[in-house]
Amino acid sequence: MRSQDTIPSPGTSLELEHAEAALVEHYPRLVRIAYLVLPPSLSRNRRVLTSHSLVQRSLPRGRVDEGGSGYAYLRARVVEQALAAGLPLSWSARPRRAQLPPLLPRIWGLRVFPRSGGADELALDRRLARLSGPARAAYVLRQLEGLDEDEVRQVLHTAGAQDTDAAVTDAAATHRADPRAGALLSSTEFDPCSLQVRPPDLIRRRQHARAAVVGAAALAVCGALLGMPGEGWGQRGAAAPPYARNPAAERALDPERLVRVSPTVWRQSSRLDFSVWPARGELAEDRSLLGRALSVWARPGRSVRVSATPATPPGPPVGPAHLLYAGLVDEVRVVLLHDGLRVVRYAEPTGSTRGAALDFARTDGAEALSSDALVVGRTDGNVRYLTAPWVRKVSVRDLLAPAVDARLLPRDAHGVTRPLPSPAQARTCRTWETLEIADGTVDRFLTDLGELTPARLTFGPPTAPQDVRPRTSLPVWASTACLLPEVRGLGVRTVNLWRYAQQPLPRSAGTASWLCLRAETWRGRGSRVLAQFQAPGAPMGAVVARSDDSAACGVRDPKALAGVVWRSPAGDWYVLAAGSDRFTSLAATGGVTARARGRLLAIRAQQGTRAELTGVLLNGARAGALG
Q1: Strands in 535-617 per DSSP E
Q2: What are the beta bridge partners of residue 65?
Q3: For residue 559, what pLDDT is reported?
Q4: Contacts of 484 by beta carbon, 8 Å cutoff, 6+ apart
Q5: Interhelix angle for 16-37 vs 70-85, to 10°?
Q6: 137 three-class SS
Q7: Which candidate in 374, 400, 413, 446 could, as Cys together with 454 as Cys, close a disulfide (CB 3.0–4.6 Å)?
Q8: Strand, helix or coil at 349?
Q9: Burial of 194 (0-12, 13-18, 19+ CB in 10 A)
Q10: pTM, full prediction
Q11: pLDDT (tens digit, 9 = 90+) per residue, 67-112?
């Protein structure tokens, strides 16, 4: 359970479990701070890996005396290590661990870096590069963390920085030069948790690989000579020599062999998924374009930007792929292909093959409810979709404005929609526009989370989720939509929102709602669960617990329990907790001790109280709180 006031009383000690909870909750923010403070002389790949490494090494080794919160302790440790990473190595002194390349995490054969921003982000990055390490840290703490100058000096002093006054002065001068630039620190340009993947220097790697092959060949010859007479140490069996060409693999790269489905097949098919999508687009007969798309899929060059959703293999097709679309979208030639496991999008600028992009998304197990649309293009913060042949009408709804009627979204003859502002690319959450798909039976809501496959939104208990209803569940989604960025980039297939309890508040303060949001992925693993407390009159629910790779709030474990420290309008503090309908009683221990029959608990407490929650289920078993 997380209190709304995360700062304990001065003079308390910080335990390892509290620091771990703070690290898990604020991990993306701490990594962003480390990335911004690290010296710009490091490559972006090295800065990304080092920032994650610094945060993961910031936990205390045991109980420590700390007058602030666990987050404040971790933030100071992160700043200290990031500043140390910028110190020059010396032969006369033992290097600090932060000055050396990180042991973990490590990524072999790829380079990772945050998604590119615009000209404003690039200008800010250059200004930060001209600052000293302490000044850069001061600017980040002021603009990103919102600390005042005295608090910044205290953090820098704790981190061991010298001349903190000069650092604060330089940071203030940078802010005065462009007062609006500080807001850009929250952009994806400086987010080392939202990454793009590229290959390293392939020519140099190939040279090293050739040298390794030559050495291995020499060892193999020596081994063969030592193993004679006989037939050597191993047999290839039925395998061809390694230089032999595979006919099946070559056929998969032949555009003439692409699978093309008739536009009427889906009407008689026993299944509705990507396998029955017809081949569409004005360039569907352009053999040259299709050949380039297949070749790049099999062997992407150095200039190709490659991205893939988590756990999606980016390898070549194992057989002839299914052509979904080939056409011109916003001056970009786009090809969409499907191989049963993945959807692949190839894009190249008109008139050139330089700057091509290759995107992979996992789609195995797709069915009608999850194959209504695919992202076909992104330009200037907008997104276009290619809709399934069975989609009769496409509308747009703003999740944050449930009372506003949907508006029709026109499509061309091939099923490509007009541009729609993408909430996944927006910097603020003022609107959240979603697709409302009508197929003649039921309307489904789809939202863009930055991937090829939009995520389906549902509402209700995990055992029987329903599609979003404009009059009933859409108003509940309005208070939760701005939390959807929390599940962006996970390869999400569906997002279900469940209002598992409503609780009358003490002092007649109204009725609060307890919500559980669960994002399921295409790969089955990597789900994310967020428990929310929705106070009366609040525009958005507050996240009070979260868990990754948990079965909670899902069909395999359809229960939820969470709590929060809440302040009443009269100024009194309470520990509130609520469980789903499978709970028969609740108990709180630790900072406060209480028991309650039923699935709701409310007990007077002190500000900053921490408590452990447990509950008894209908079958007599005990269960803890989410997270």
Answers
A1: 542-548, 561-567, 573-579, 583-590, 594-597, 600-605, 611-617
A2: 13
A3: 96
A4: 423, 432, 447, 449, 495
A5: 40
A6: helix
A7: 446
A8: strand
A9: middle
A10: 0.63
A11: 556 888 899 999 998 898 877 655 444 556 666 677 667 777 777 7
